[in-house]
Amino acid sequence: xxKIIIAGIGPGSKEDxxxxxxxxxxxxxxxxxxxxxxxxxxxxxxxxxxxxxxxMKKERERAEQAFLLAEQGKTVVVISSxxxxxxxxxxxxxxxxxxxxxxxxxxxxxxxxxxxxAASLLGAPIxxxxxxxxxxxxxxxxxxxxxxxxxxxxxxxxxxxxxxxSHGRYWQLYxxxxxxxxxxxxxxxxxxxxxxxxxxxxxxxxxxxxxxxxNVDMFTVILIGNSQSYIADGKIITPRGYSLTPAPSSALGxxxxxxxxxxxxxxxxxxxxxxxxxxxxxxxxHTTADFDMERILYTDDGAVETIYNKVSDGSLKTIVTxxxxxxxxxxxxxxxxxxxxxxxxxxxxxxxxxxxxxRSLDGDEGRVITRTQAGIRLAVEEHPDALxxxxxxxxxxxxxxxxxxxxxxRPAGIIAAPVGFVHVRESKHMVxxxxxxxxxxxxxxxxxxxxxxxxxxAILTFDDAAQLxxxxxx
Length: 474
Prior knowledge:
- The protein is α/β, with parallel strands linked by helices.
- Helix content is about 35%, strand content about 20%.
- It starts with a strand and ends in a 14-residue tail after the last helix.
């Protein structure tokens, strides 16, 4: 009896054919394969080797031919592109041997799969748990394929997509995109490679929301990132993860926060929030463990990014808070790193003196003001263009609104998160008409100093948002 060697010849370039496969091809008495693949091994075939090529969808015929030649005592190499065990000839030949009870030796030589080659060209997209799904429904019912897509999306796998499209199958890839967008953000990285490793090779990086199925064909492999994947320098990176990697104790807090943010993002009802709103939302839920934040957190379009840009360009130097608890919750490392001062005037001697008098500073006789109101008045005199963050006192927020309307305050931004039952909702409504001021608001009765502080921290670390890497200054 002869022998059958099932060999994966890689994605298409001679550099990606393993030495073991080359040796097998060079020593073969016969080679069987799809005719398109012979061009990649032809230079290594020895004189007199019998080459049998067939067209597409002739896999069973090729397998039968291989057994026939092996029964004649020949060493037969059956070639498949990529790895022969991944959508290749290996399963069929092993099944056929078992079904027929044949006593023929079978050896399988692995090859570099198309998804591995594509991944190397796209950067590092398969750095964590992944799966491969073929969209061909020739031998698998579409209902089964769709269940697999949904499961992979829910489980947050990186997904490699084979057989994405053909002349007869044009809609399946659109359906895959639709299903994934129900579970994943539109900014999820997507990379696709056509003719990987071959002269016609093209490599593209985009996002799930921008991906156009019309740009791919049956020679294309698609890689879709998970919730942690991101694009940097035109490459896709999927972090390996931190929970399995021992780390120094100094980094433990950040690692826990990163894992917490990943968990929160996976449980959000919506997957397509703009990045700066998402960053604030993740901070708010992380601080409160309250997923109602998804409903009540309001941000102006681009508010977090706009305020961060003012920090980044040096035009924002001060954060004013209504109470000391907010100031205490803003990360000192971030303030020092960015050259920002966080101030609360609540215990300023001038504020204490002001509240002893039954009148306001502008001569409103008989009006008694709270210490937080007085603190905001004094803060506006010294820092009219600060970022103002409120986590406790609705009267202080209402005071700021009054000073804005009088032209005395020009805030770089407002975080409106006072908590309570009296004037709380009204104070937040009063903020919204200021269209030119970027605002972050916890709507309704909820709020608190911890929320105001964490929203400040979200702004100060917005440059970490794209990588979903919170906790830099813990």
